Amino acid sequence: xxxxxxxxxxxxxxxxxxxxxxxxxxxxEITDLSSPQAHDLISVLAEIILPETDTxxxxxxxxxxxxxxxxxxxxxxxxxxxxxxxxxEFQKQCRSRFGMPFLQCSAxxxxxxxxxxxxxxxxxxxxxxxxxxxxxxxxxxLKRLTALGYFTSREATTGVVAYEQIPGRWTGCVELKTGQxxxxxx
Amino acid sequence: MSSVTENTYDAIVVGSGITGGxxxxxxxxxxxxxxxxxRGREVYHIKDYPTAIxxxxxxxxxxxxxxxxxxASPVQSRCYAFDESTSHxxxxxxxxxYVQVKPFSWIRGYQTGGRSLVWGRQCYRFSDLDFEANxxxxxxxDWPIRYRDIAPWYxxxxxxxxxxxxxxxxxxxxxxxxxxxxxMNCVEKHMARRIRETFENxxxxxxxxxxxxxxxxxxxxCQYRNLCARGCPFAGYFSTNSATLPAAQETxxxxxxxxxxxxxxxxxxxxxxxxxxxxxxxxxxxxxxYYSRIIFLNASTLGTTQILLNSVSRRFPEGLGNGSGQVGRxxxxxxxxxxxAGDYEGFPDRYYEGRRPNGTYIPRFRNxxxxxxxxxxxxxxxxxxxxxxxxxERAGMTPGVGARFKERMxxxxxxxxxxxxxGECLPYPDNRVWLSKxxxxxxxxxxxxxxxxxxxxxxxxxxxxxxxxxxxxxAAGMKNIRPFDYDSPPGLCxxxxxxxxxxxxxxxxxxxxxxxxxxxxxxxxxxxxxxTSSGCQNPSLTYMALTARACDxxxxxxxxxxx
Lengths: 186, 563
Ligand SMILES: Cc1cc2nc3c(=O)[nH]c(=O)nc-3n(C[C@H](O)[C@H](O)[C@H](O)COP(=O)(O)OP(=O)(O)OC[C@H]3O[C@@H](n4cnc5c(N)ncnc54)[C@H](O)[C@@H]3O)c2cc1C
Ligand code: SF4
Prior knowledge:
The complex is a heterodimer. Chain A is mainly α.
């Protein structure tokens, strides 16, 4: 992250706390996971979690589609609502701190916010809250689905993780080769 | 009556699961014209394994359970083997209702092969520690057999099944006839050594599993894909479909009739014997009767019990062969989902290759002799144990995002070790099932009420199962030890048994030492319902051996003109 952005982010987060209760935005909230808005946001978040490098990233592995399908088909309405609420709160915070929608922020500002969101569920307060409300922090759900969608994708088997369709052998104890990747499945 | 002759066989076998497949194979081998009745659809080996060679990305939900699947099958979906890749081998719960008086998960597969397609393939012999336990402790009734009666039959079925494992000469867990074992990985070897060094009576051994680790009777070898519950195109593990059914068919003596729901055994009051079975055709809904000299019931523990209770006659108003009143009682299942896990910081430079469809096993070490006697409970438990290196699945719970995070998650993580206990359950007469007086299923058959719970003995054992697991992990130098005790309703362990027990006395048991009904000599029952006690070993191997033994007896009795 550039130094200037970091300073701005720091200042903004103080401002964010101060102005936390001033709900201002008139921008449309996400109501539906199948909407383009939801898709765009999820897709960018997933790519930040597992970006394209010399190997494919979440987006080119189709993880965005998978996350939405999994949320729609494998989660209850209540879990989906909590997830959408989490996304909206995340967007709202971004606007109140940086004055613009998340998708319009620079990559480095986006990263600051995502890293915060990533740390949040590990915090004591958040852990208490999710236990009391019996609700998973949206970023935890997002990250879990991103990892599942990505590491079990065909794209991830091209150099990211190791995969053999038919191993043909079991060797219980081998030397770890340099550059050996984790198995895609066990 | 031409339809009678047309529908008459030497033998009828009801159910084509693990035990029915064995009965069909053994009876046809002896030249008996055998009708195998199966309530579900036909599943052809290989052809009907639609997901067997799918890659992970071929599944829309990457094997996460969908809400729709869970709603259609709230019970089956609790089973660890049930997911997008296997759900077609489990029943639809809404179409197959039963009443849970207390929570009981009835896990079923209605198709050719029954649950042999999805089973976990763990195979362990019982010993006299098990066969003598009831007598010694004054619990329930004595088994009418001892280890020496069944030992040759264990060997007989094992030579056909193909079981990978290593001889250990343990009195409480006799050796099978083995194919080569699947070796332990580094952390398991370490753990096994530390257990041997630290605890007098405990060992950790390679899991014994029905996998052909070398070519065996034209099957296999196992390719180490660990996708077995989808059906195996290599016939790498034992199932009815890959092994016993083809053998039965090869004799030319088998007629397999799918979509045939047996509703009752037909009893002839004049002849004082069972003459056949009544069947509803699941496609046409027509009822037909089939006749035979002997009948084997292998519809699984509760399936068979349901048929017996529904077979009422003047002679047997409480159900076929139920003069003792024991049909439906003494329901047992193993209790599990209790143990501990821990992390191991060593072996950063070691890994494994292939996907082993098996694990390791810690045989029972409690109440095996005076020295290991417990005051707080009877009987004992074994552990299935597994070591592995964490993979990418840790990503969801590991802080970090971005390129470096992605790279880190793709490198093998820390080793961990998981120990899960499988515990014996005592036979309690009031753990029982009965037929509903007012509720019927879509075929008009009274549905089952199941009233079963674990008691003080099992709960005390669970405490020990949890603590002993943690204690062994500690002895092996594991860190971050996490004991667990999850909800384990009876049934979920899929080892339901005991509702048509064997015994010596017709007044207190239903079957004799050869699985023959005391009161109806031409009916044999060799699925899990015959069990007099539960042991803590995975039971299917014992069911198979009892089946082969009972078939041998039935055939020789027929030849002598006694049946
Ligand atoms: C996921 C899973 C893992 C398991 N792991 C192990 C393991 O590792 N080791 C072990 O020993 N055991 C294991 N088991 C248990 C094992 O599958 C059973 O013990 C075994 O299948 C019992 O054999 P069976 O022939 O009695 O019943 P099943 O295999 O269930 O077969 C019964 C058959 O009867 C048919 N049927 C039922 N009612 C009727 C009727 N009225 N008319 C006609 N046909 C009928 C059914 O459709 C079915 O095909 C596991 C089970 C599951 C589900
Ligand atoms: S592990 Fe072996 S038995 Fe299981 S599916 Fe693969 S080849 Fe078949």
